[in-house]
Design a protein that fits this description.
two-stranded parallel ribbon, mainly alpha, 255 residues
Length: 255
């Protein structure tokens, strides 16, 4: 049950305190006779405009989210490709350099996982990636050049993926868009609190439903804007992309 609340219903539960406060203010406004706004077509037009803006924001953040979703898997694939080449070299030549490189790959894999949790800095991961160079130099006398070229390509791919993940994590999609969406949602919520609509139970329904949807969508967009927020709750949730490829690779490397 706790796992269900921490994943599927986490955002919905996070919105509930806002809705509770809105309903309390609505009851106060109704009992004190502060409902001085009449429902009009202009009000519904503002709701439509805000939903359009939210749709624009979510379509923008989904692009980065879908790209970020591929990054851990592609990182694991590149690391495993380098591992395959080094293992072939070790099995063929029994070279100590290859065994040392395999240990370096294990270290880099752990370093990448820690990076997603912000336990390791980007510059440190880059230094680990650059550490492959000394092994590639030692491999020149042990293997063909095209083997080293393939490993260099995977090294460059890892560096590119790390830079892209760093950019997605540290850059917000559109702060101005978030601001105007939050302002419109706040104004609409105030309007609903002071709107006069009979019967009263219909009024309560719209006061609960409309702010719930708008607030929920804004929180959802902010969650999707950074698909690598493992460091916030120090664990992987349903809103972040899965690190399973890197974690599975760690298990395989240990074996």
């Amino acid at each position: 049950m706790n796992k269900l609340f921490s994943t599927k219903w986490r955002l919905a539960i996070k919105v509930l305190p806002y809705i509770f406060a809105i309903v309390v203010f609505k009851l106060i406004a109704h009992n004190q006779g502060f409902e001085f706004i009449s429902l009009s077509s202009l009000f519904t037009a503002l709701i439509s405009a805000n939903i359009f803006l939210i749709g624009f924001l979510i379509s923008g953040v989904l692009v980065d989210y879908k790209e970020g979703e591929k990054i851990p898997g592609e990182m694991a694939s590149s690391l495993e490709a380098i591992t395959d080449e080094v293992e072939i070299l070790y099995e063929g030549k029994k070279a100590e350099q290859a065994a040392s490189c395999l240990n370096h790959i294990k270290k880099l894999n752990v370093c990448l996982i820690n990076w997603f949790y912000k336990k390791t800095k980007t510059i440190e991961v880059m230094a680990e990636l650059k550490g492959f160079n000394q092994y590639f130099l030692q491999f020149e006398s042990l293997t063909q050049a095209n083997f080293i070229v393939r490993m260099k390509q995977e090294q460059n791919n890892l560096r590119r993926l790390l830079n892209r993940a760093h950019s997605i994590r540290e850059t917000s999609f559109n702060r101005s868009g978030y601001t105007i969406a939050e302002i419109i949602t706040f104004v609409l919520t105030l309007g609903l609190i002071f709107t006069r609509l009979e019967p009263f139970y219909e009024n309560i329904f719209f006061v609960i439903f409309v702010p719930f949807i708008l607030i929920y969508m804004i929180l959802l967009i902010k969650d999707l804007d950074n698909p690598f927020e493992y460091y916030v709750r120090n664990k992987e949730t349903a809103d972040e992309v899965s690190l399973k490829p890197l974690i599975d690779l760690k298990s395989r490397l240990e074996k």
